[in-house]
Amino acid sequence: MTQQKARHVPVLFQEVMDFIRVRPGGTTVDCTLGLAGHAEGIVRQLGSAGHFIGFDRDPEALGLARTRLSRVCEELGSEAPRVTLIGEAFSTIAEHVAQHSVDGLLADFGASSLHFDEARRGFSFQADGPLDMRMDTRSGSTAEQVVNEMGERELANLIYEYGEERRSRTVARAIVRGRPVTSTAQLARIVASAVPPMKFIHPATRTFQALRIFVNQELQEIRALFEAAPQLLKPSGRFVVISFHSLEDRIAKDSIREGAQKGIWKVLTRKPVTATEDEINRNPRSRSAKLRAAERQ
Ligand SMILES: C[S@@+](CC[C@H](N)C(=O)[O-])C[C@H]1O[C@@H](n2cnc3c(N)ncnc32)[C@H](O)[C@@H]1O
Questions:
Q1: Using CA positions, which residue lies closest to atom 27 of ligand 1?
Q2: What is the dihedral of CA 111, 117, 120, 125, to 10 degrees?
């Protein structure tokens, strides 16, 4: 493990453990293994009769999670639960997990520190790398294909919708003029030269977010998970989600509220749970995390 990968810290760890309330001997699903920080906490509590199921569509993350969880299970010996890891998008969850079989369902949305810290994955405007941004590196269009092949108007709409960037038309025009765009640093430069400097964030932040969401179909994935979740959970089973920006959180908030009105969910978090000052100091990425939890009625 490199220094950068070792730096990964799971956000709102204790809060996740409190809300997911792992039932020894039960089944808990982590839809977003990442580097298995939350997963390790869950696996340690499931007991030998328990079953842990983990998803990650990124083959590299899945490999790292597998190594970490194998070590934990080795350490637990006869107390280790059964572990099943699935290298697919969590929107396929209903194909892999039986109905009404789950006690706890966790999803910690978005990209991981593995994505942001490794320049070669193309997620970061702070380091130069190929413009890839795919979590699942086995298929789908890269960000490079999107910025070079999409029409200007469509690109502007994408940047507006998924990046909430008010200057989306200016940005899209600059990108089209700057083609071919092949690296993260080149894209960051083009965007920074098209819009005025910003006080708190790099001017390319929103454009990068928009491309990442589009390339990975992130919002469609989240909607599909919210549709599948009620059928998967047992009565009193818990669903815990962590979002990192308003587009994700809006889906979580609206889906839980609508589900509560239909008698599907009991809301456990009237307001989203956020990180303490102490956690934010230790792990700045936790600053924008919002946890929402619901219990299956
Ligand atoms: C924020 S990280 C999770 C970190 C993890 N909770 C931990 O403790 O290390 C999100 C992970 O979910 C994966 N992911 C994101 N969207 C996904 C999807 N739709 N299906 C499967 N995996 C997804 C990403 O590849 C990434 O590894």
A1: 34
A2: 80
